[in-house]
Amino acid sequence: MARNGNGQIVASIMKSQNLYLSNTRCTHSMRFRTTWHGKIESKDIYNQIDYIAIPIEMRKMITNARSHKGMKYESDHSMVVTTFDFRRFYVKEKVPKQRVEKLDMQILANDENVQEDIKRKSALS
Predict the structure, then answer these.
(1) In which region does residue 49 sit, left (phi positive, over 0), alpha (psi from -120 to 50) or beta (all else)?
(2) 107 located within any domain
(3) pLDDT (tens digit, 9 = 90+) per residue, 69-111?
């Protein structure tokens, strides 16, 4: 796709600021890539002129990016939507579970010394 002067300016801004245009990542058919539609001299024109700029480090998180026509309000622009999967890069660390010491209930039921000890401790509380 050819760039005009404005496209060159946008490209240089993206490069200098380490940004990425998210809706250029996915390869959809033209009807899901074009974001502006109109008529010039009774000829239908479709262009991709609306973008979502994201930090370049996030580009691998993109799962889908496309334009959506037919929104609630009439416009000659289509809404651009980008979907991310943050789980790819922000994985929770697995914290090992602390083992709870299991009490031997038979000792509690049968050992008189243990029973007396528990009674003494509960009386102090």
Answers:
(1) alpha
(2) no
(3) 776 677 777 777 888 888 877 777 788 888 877 777 777 777 7
Question: Per the domain annotation, does 109 fall within a domain?
Answer: no
How many domains does the chain divide into?
A: 1
Q: Which helix (H) or strand (E) holds 109?
A: helix 105-110
- What pTM did the predictor assign? 0.53
Give the torsion sign (CA, 70, 73, 76, 78). Answer: negative
What is the per-residue pLDDT for 16?
A: 92
Under DSSP, is residue 5 helix (H, G, I), strand (E, B) or coil?
helix
pLDDT the model gives residue 31: 66
- Is there a domain that residue 103 lies in? no
Residue 50 belongs to domain spanning: 5-88
- Phi/psi region, residue 89 (left: phi>0; alpha: psi -120 to 50; beta: rest), is alpha
Residue 14 domain-assigned (yes or no): yes
Q: 38 CB contacts (<8 Å, ≥6 apart)? A: 44, 45, 76
